[in-house]
Write a structure and sequence with these properties.
alpha+beta, Aminopeptidase, five-stranded mixed β-sheet, 5 strands
């Protein structure tokens, strides 16, 4: 599964079985991204797509020394299950 970063539209996305799944974010300032919405079409849920997109987005933030605000409940839960991303969460 290929995940692309569309900086202009502030999102990470993937096309699976002809359907788009994505994580939308807002750039709050030069070092903070708000990951506020994750979407996977109903027929593709349960296949790990959201997790792969969120992991890619978190790794992007880490590699670029960015902090994140996990406004999306899925992103927040993902971080709870993967505490190695805790230090990136802006408190």
């Amino acid at each position: 599964m290929e995940i692309k970063h569309d900086k202009d539209n502030q999102r990470f996305f993937s096309i699976v079985e002809g359907r788009e799944s994505y994580l939308q974010y807002l750039k709050i300032d030069s070092v903070t991204l708000d990951y506020y919405k994750t979407y996977v079409p109903n027929e593709l849920r349960g296949k790990g797509i959201a997790g792969k997109i969120v992991e890619t987005a978190l790794n992007y933030a880490r590699e670029n020394n960015l902090m994140i605000i996990p406004s999306c409940s899925y992103v927040e839960t993902f971080i709870e299950h993967h505490p190695n991303y805790d230090k990136m969460v802006k408190k």
